[in-house]
Amino acid sequence: MSSLVEVRNLVKDYPLKTGLIATLTGGVRVAHAVSDIDLDIAPGEIVGVVGESGSGKTTLGKVLVRLEQATGGQVRFDGRPLGGLRGQARKQFHRDVQMIFQDPYDTLNPRLTIFGNVELPLRYLGIGTSGADRRRRVMEALELVELNPPEQFANRYPHQLSGGQRQRVAIARALIVNPRFLVADEPVSMLDVSIRAGVLNLLKRLNGELGIAMMLITHDLTTAYYLSHRIAVMYLGKVVELSAGPALIGHPVHPYTRLLLESAPDLMREVVDRPPLSAETANAIAPPAGCRFAPRCPYVIDVCRQVDPALQPADSGRQVACHRAADLTPAAPWPQSSEQQPER
Amino acid sequence: MLLDVDDLSVAFATDTGLLHAVNNVSFELAAGESLGLVGESGCGKSTLGFALLRLLAENGGIVGGSVRLDGEDVVEMTDARLRAIRWDKVAMVFQNAMSALSPVARIGDQIVDAMRLHRQIGRDEALRLAGDTFERVGVSRARLQQYPHEFSGGMKQRAMLALGLVCGPQLLIADEPTTALDVVAQRQVLDLFRELRRESGLALIMISHDISAVSEICDRVAVMYGGEIMEIGPLRDVFFRYRHPYTWALINSFPSLHQPLRRLVALPGAPPALSEPPRACPFVSRCPFAMPLCSEQRPPVVVVGSGHSVRCHRVGELDLAATDGGDHVVAG
């Protein structure tokens, strides 16, 4: 199947504020938010992008919707490079690609009614033949996100809705232009648990019924697992492992994926005494030479500190960027002792 | 009992009238024990935590019941006595408390100043104690010389924990101690809590919306909804043999990495406004199992097992363990 979204060698650097001297001598420092990422998303596919703050996952999403411009590499949507979009093609791109954000209260206009908010993209993009036509579309979109009956919500203001309802409005606003690809950046992390499930189920339904491809950006492996067909794990601007959800969760290969999995608290698991962690994350301004995870990696060998491993195919469609990927499959235990200790 | 909370109610005066934030809450905590207070925003869990130390905002107050700490009634206590037990006997760690530190003074100086207000000790001794506590939570003593902005999120949370522990309290109340932290930093904080409890027999009340984080360090758990404890008991009983529909929804609204995927339970509607004292079950409008009685009468507290009790009219008839989320999926 050909890809809907094709990311090749994508790089995004942010220049840091530096002094006059540094600027004159050409010593401008940059933060490497995204370094050399390759990723494909098929039509109708949900790819979860998981990582900690500072891993570059949000930057990646923003580049894909053209909120940020790549420093290097290329992104193609439906075969067309994003850089060269002009005129009609660019308008079409913004119909095809939409984004929703973490805090729906921040992204809705508080002075507009729900109707006004959801209608905005139609006005900007010149969609809809008449006011009545636009109204019909708005009501359909509200119904689609299960805000029923839509008439009851249309005339309210964002502050009159709950967090979950506001996120549904944001989703309705994204859907009203019939996108083919949706970037969802932490769509449920601000929501209470009982509300969260409703929004996750909604996204799942929209993907299933309308075939909208999605990129789900989240720090929460569990959310990604629930929704995604494939999961990409990012660490300091790089994808370190990319695989179908069950394989990634069941048999993680990259040591960082293992660390994430082992760290995520989970009700359905006995608490074990875990090996202590080496302190801090390296930063994106001066990433370590070689593998970026090497300073924290319990499996580190000499080559890791010198050569940055490339993302390479491993078993069953999985891709891993690790020099030791071959010895680490199937999941080897952590090198330190991690004895099961029943606590209660 | 280290802590004995009996029939505690808290209310706030607001522009639109009284807000009944906590209603008739009772629980006990033995020395060295840990209790998780879980629930969603607005359920009253933080208010309850604040009320235990009488740290409520000015428009709020305890309107009924008692809080006994080592037999002493906190509600009736003089302000002087209250100041003496806060921090020394019971410490509280707040969410984002680090933002309360001054950004222009070294962390060590700020801690030392606070300690010397509280205890008759010299600068050097205070600094030494602060350094010891920092090391206990895995932060280097040298960091006392640093400013707040030089700390990462996880480091800040550990520093706040150190600050809470510096006077050697018997009970620590931690309000959302791991929220806003990345999963790896969160794990470090949870590991630290476990270690501290094992080492020093510290009793802990952890307030959190995150039931999986609570499951890592607590012996018992109380599930709050609409200002009331709906279910309380040993952690495994509450999380795996839950008897209240809200606990059922809470547990099943969350996917697990260690179980096959099921469809999640989503609840319709929103929590109650709490503008009136409870006359019915607060969960009634969202409960898939509600019957007429639930909106007519407040359910009694029913003991269902050793230390395990539930506030639900239907506790005797529901078999929640056998109820799958699929039958009750409604948009929330």
Describe the protein's architecture and organization:
The complex is a heterodimer of chains A (344) and B (332). Chain A is an alpha/beta fold. Chain A has 14 helices and 12 strands. Chain A has helices at 20-24, 57-64, 87-96, 104-107, 114-125, 131-144, 150-154, 163-175, 193-210, 221-227, 245-250, 255-263, 302-306, 325-328, and strands spanning 5-15, 30-41, 46-50, 72-77, 80-81, 97-100, 181-185, 213-218, 230-235, 238-244, 312-313, 319-320. Chain A has an 8-stranded mixed beta sheet, with helices on both faces. A 4-stranded antiparallel beta sheet of chain A has the order 2-1-4-5, with helices on one face. In chain A, a hairpin with a 5-residue loop joins β11 (312-313) and β12. Chain B contains 10 helices and 12 strands. The two termini of chain B are 40 Å apart. The chains are: A alpha/beta (344), B alpha/beta (332).
Q: Which stretches of chain A are low in confidence, meaning pLDDT under 50 for 5 or more residues running?
A: 333-344
What do the pLDDT scores of chain A average to? 87
Task: Give the fraction of residues assigned to helices of chain A.
Answer: 25-40%
Structural class of chain B: alpha/beta
Rg over C-alpha atoms of chain B, rounded to the nearest angstrom = 21 Å
In short:
The complex is a heterodimer of chains A (344) and B (332). Chain A is α/β, with parallel strands linked by helices and 344 residues long. Chain A has 14 helices and twelve strands.
How are the secondary structure elements laid out?
The complex is a heterodimer of chains A (344) and B (332).
Chain A: E1 5-15, H1 20-24, E2 30-41, E3 46-50, H2 57-64, E4 72-77, E5 80-81, H3 87-96, E6 97-100, H4 104-107, H5 114-125, H6 131-144, H7 150-154, H8 163-175, E7 181-185, H9 193-210, E8 213-218, H10 221-227, E9 230-235, E10 238-244, H11 245-250, H12 255-263, H13 302-306, E11 312-313, E12 319-320, H14 325-328
Helix pairs in contact in A: 5-6, 5-8, 6-8, 8-9
Chain B: E1 3-14, E2 17-29, E3 34-38, H1 45-52, E4 60-69, E5 72-73, H2 79-85, E6 90-93, H3 107-118, H4 123-136, H5 153-165, E7 171-175, H6 183-200, E8 203-208, H7 211-217, E9 220-225, E10 228-234, H8 235-240, H9 245-252, H10 292-296, E11 301-305, E12 308-311
Parallel strand pairs in B: 3-8, 3-9, 6-7, 7-8
Antiparallel strand pairs in B: 1-2, 1-4, 4-5, 9-10, 10-12, 11-12
Helix pairs in contact in B: 3-4, 4-5, 5-6
